[in-house]
Amino acid sequence: MTLDTSLIALGVLVAPFALWVAARVLPAAERAPAPAGSSYRLVAGSFLALLLMGSLTVVGRNAAPLMEALTLLVAHLGVAAFLLAMAAFLSPPALDLIGIRRPRFAAEMGRGVAAYALIIPSVFALHALTLRWFPDAQKSQDALKAIVASAGTAEFVVRALAVTLAVPLFEELMVRGFLQRGLEGIIASAGWSGSRAIAVVVSSLAFTVLHEPQTWVSVMALSLLLGLAAARTGSLLVPIAAHGMHNLVVVLYETWIRGGTPH
What we know:
Layout: H1 3-25, H2 36-60, H3 65-90, H4 105-118, H5 120-133, H6 142-149, H7 154-189, H8 195-209, H9 216-233, H10 237-257
Helix pairs in contact: 1-4, 1-5, 2-3, 2-7, 3-7, 4-10, 6-7, 7-8, 7-10, 8-9, 9-10
């Protein structure tokens, strides 16, 4: 039995129990939808952040590898800081609007890491299945290829920091904090039921199409889980921690276990 087959079997076997326990780790919290006015600004902010990130990425694309990696790190942190400032402006003086609550910072980050740790076997299973269904999926992921290829260098450290810290912070702010939260408020203000579930699905679809088509199955599954975690807990810190943990696991797995070679 190959490594991938073992991972698939284990992940499928433990998935129901792992998801049930992970849900118990994340306490349900009631949170009213954002006001309509703020909701429209949140959605607009998510698109503005995407435009800024796209522009910054183009700037660093033709640079030397290490400089490109530094640009990736700084760009994600910079646009994340912009989103945090915008959220604080929309709801001064706190960031409660998007689910960042300073007194609970450590606890909510810990819950995100713990919940993700429980579903790691299932994540590996889905990752292995994706590579079986779409053999070119790994080859198409430029960011992951660059990390694996730079192992043992300063570039690797910078890229790993960007992917495990800066990217999750930016993406969760943009997708779960702004887009999902904004869509929920807009849908609720229109009088529709199920605004929270609709917002999770629509924002996850938007997040998924930003990735390579061959990875859409696994990205959509992860995005739905992160969106549900944000909706259930009312906290953006939970999906940020879980997303960072996920990217770290993928980097470690692809670099030192798979060695960057599709099985």
